[in-house]
Amino acid sequence: MSDSPTTGPVVLDVWCELQCADCHTALADLRALRARYGDRLDVRLRHFPLDKHRHSFAAAQAAEEAVEQGQGWAYAEAVLARHAELADRGEPLLLEVARQLGLDDEEFDTALIDGRHTLIVDADQAEGKAIGVTGTPTYVIGGERLDGGKSQDGLRERVEEIADRLLARA
After folding, report:
1. Is the dihedral of CA 151, 148, 153, 44 positive or negative?
2. How far apart are CA 98 and CA 58, in angstroms?
3. Higher pLDDT residue, 115 or 2?
4. Which of 81, 56, 63, 67 lies closest to 135, judged by CA?
5. How many CB atoms lie within 10 A of CB 21?
6. In whole angstroms, what is the distance from residue 36 CA to residue 29 CA?
7. How confident is the model at residue 4 (pLDDT cuts 50, 70, 90)?
8. What is the pLDDT of residue 51?
9. Rounded to 5 degrees, what are φ and ψ at 44?
10. What is the mean pLDDT of residues 47-53?
């Protein structure tokens, strides 16, 4: 009897900020990982809004509303694709992206006003700080933290190594 993890999917937490150019660059690797592993890898968006990006906290809250409406990753990818525009336009862009994806943009507006997702974003950020996240993107898989903020080079391969090792144990 080993005390190995459950036989469910391997979890990859991605500490991300939706106004971050490096997080946008990381999308290609995340898509490739999802394509390679399918439901054997649970890629979870974790929020780490940075003070230097004034719309990042609102974007994180909007992403959580997209999760509630069943399109978390689609929304995050659409906002990241327009991260530079988000810097200029702020919340109107967040609502526009929601509309374009067929989501209830009025509910997004209400969520941003009433702050219903603030606790989730705050908890993600606090957990990230507690485990040493200082920038985005940062990946955590199998207890190992990989910092993608400086360079994405070799990160996907490292995530694959860890995922393969964890899946072989399952």
Report:
1. negative
2. 13
3. 115
4. 56
5. 12
6. 10
7. very low
8. 87
9. -110, 125
10. 92
**The Cα angle at residue 113 between residues 110 and 118, in degrees rounded to 5:** 105
**What is the arithmetic mean of pLDDT over 2-6?**
45
Q: What is the 3-state secondary structure (H, E, C) of the chain?
A: CCCCCCCCCEEEEEEECCCCHHHHHHHHHHHHHHHHHHHHEEEEEEECCCCCCCCHHHHHHHHHHHHHCCCHHHHHHHHHCCHHHHHHHCHHHHHHHHHHCCCCHHHHHHHHHHCCCHHHHHHHHHHHHHCCCCCCCEEEECCEEEECCCCCCCHHHHHHHHHHHHHHHC
Two structure tokens written together for 101: 């994806």
Q: Are 29 and 152 in contact (CB under 8 A)?
A: yes
Give pLDDT tens digits for 92-129: 999 999 999 999 999 999 999 999 999 999 999 999 99
What does the mean pLDDT of the chain come to?
91
Cβ contact 35:27 at 8 Å: no
Structure tokens at 86: 């988000």
Residue 158 has pLDDT above 80, yes or no: yes
